[in-house]
Amino acid sequence: MGHDTKARPISRRRFLAVSGGVALSLPWLESLSSRARANQGKAAPAAQRMAFFYLPNGIMRRGFFPGEGDRALPGFAGQNNVWRFAGQVTPEGSHPLTFTPTLAPLHAMRDKISLITGLDRTFQHGTDSHAQAASCFLTNVAPYEVKNSAYPLARTLDHIAADSIGQTTPYSTLELSCNDHKNNIESIYFDNMSWYGTGHVAPSMRDPREVYDRLFGTNANARIRNITELALSNAKQLQRHLSVDDRQKFAEYFEAIRTIEKRMDRIDAMKSELAAAKVERPAEHLPRNDYIHLMGDLMVTALQSGLTNVGTLMVGPERWTTPTNWEGILDQPHSHHAMTHAPHEHMEDLLKLDRFHISAFARLLERMDTITEANGTTLLDNTIFTLGAGMGDGTTHQYNDLPLVVAGGGGGKLKLGKHVHCKTGTPLANLWLTQLHALGIERKAYADSTAMLTEILA
C-alpha cells in the first residue's frame, strides 16, 4: 500500500474537532492513528461483522434451486408441510456452483458465496407459519423448548453474536425492515426477525430518514440539509495531513453518504410532487427498488464506519396482504404474499421479484468487496453475510430445504465458492452454530443443532 511521506499523524479526536463536530463515524483511516507509522506492517485485525438479508414469503423454487427448473407448481397448502422435489436430486456434499436464472446476479461474486441447500427447521404447531418463519429464523432454542410462549423463540443469533463482537460499537445491532406499510395488520411476529429474548422484540426501523438521523444526524447541525457539505468544508484544512490512500478513502466514504442523501431527496421529492398534484396514492407506496437499495446502503455504511458490527435487513414483511407498488420491478401493485398462493397465475412476476431481491443482495456484496480495510482485506472479507428465507416455498409453506446463500469471508474463517447440499433432516441451526464458531464464539450447540457445517469452514 502506498503512502504519502509528507503526511503527519493526527488523532481521530482532533480530526473530528476540526471537522465541525459532525457526528459521522469515520471508516478506518491509517493517518488518524499516532502509532500508524511506527507500526507499519503490523495492522490490527479488522473487526468481524455479521449481517442478514431476509426474504419474506419464501421463494419460487424453480428459479432458485439448481435442478428444479421443471419442478411442478404445487397447489396452495395451509400450515407447514414437508415437500421435496421428486425430480433431479442433488447428492449430499459439495458441488460446483450452478447459477440458475434467479441466482444469476451473484455470478460476479461466485468465489465469495456458497449456496447452502437441504437445511430444515421444525414447525411448532400453534402459531401461523409465516409469523414463525420470520421471528424464529435466527432463534437459539429448539421447538417446544420455551414453555411460556407459543413461539419457539428466545434471544436471536444477531444479538448472541453482538454479545461478543458488538460491544465496542455505538450500536450493538442494527435492525432494518423494508416494510413501508402504515397499516398494522399483523402482529410484531410477522415483521421482526431480531429479538432480545422471548417476548422482547428488537423493533426494526423502516423509515430511511429515521435510520439516517439516528446514525448520522446531529442536533447541533439539524438545520443543515447536507451534513457532508459541512464536514467536507471544515475538514479541508486536514487534507494535507492524510496519506494519499486515506484521501481517496475519505472521499469515497463521504461520497457514499452523499449518494444516500440524494436518493432520500428523490424519494421525498416524489412524495411532494404527488401530494401537490393531489394524486391519490397511499403513503406506503414508495418506489420499491430505490427503497430496498437505500436501506441496504444504510446498513453497509453502518458496518463500514464502525457504527455497528451486526445488522439485519428484512426486504419485506411476512403475510402482509396490502398491495405493494413495485415501481421499477412490476407494472402494477401486488401483494407478494397473495401471489405466492397462486403461483400458476403469478409465476413470471414472482420470478422477477426473486431475481430483483437476489440482485439487490449481489449489489451490496459487490460494494462491500470494494471497501478496503486496515489490513488490506475488504469489508466483505471480514463479514459473514447470509441471504435466506424462513420458508422453502411460499405456496407449500414448507420449513424444509430452505433457500440460503452465505457470502463473505468471516475474517478468513470461511471457505466458499461452492454449492453445499446437506443430508436430509440437517437443522438450520447447524449453519448458525458454524457461523458463531467462525466469529470465534465457542458454543457446544445452538438451538437444535447436531454438528457444524465443516464444508464451509477454512
Describe what this molecule looks like in 3D.
The chain has 458 residues and is α/β, with parallel strands linked by helices. The chain contains 11 helices and 10 strands. The chain folds into 2 domains: 49-70 and 93-216 and 285-456, 3-Layer(aba) Sandwich (Alkaline Phosphatase, subunit A), CATH 3.40.720.10; 222-281. A hairpin with a 2-residue loop joins strand 5 (195-197) and strand 6 (200-201). Helix 7 runs antiparallel to helix 8 and helix 8 packs parallel to helix 10. The longest helix has 33 residues, at 244-276.
Quick synopsis:
The protein is α/β, with parallel strands linked by helices and 458 residues long. It has helices at 12-18, 61-64, 129-135, 157-165, 208-216, 227-235, 244-276, 288-305, 336-340, 343-368, 429-438, and strands spanning 49-55, 93-95, 113-117, 174-177, 195-197, 200-201, 310-314, 383-389, 404-408, 419-421. Strand 5 (195-197) and strand 6 form a beta hairpin.
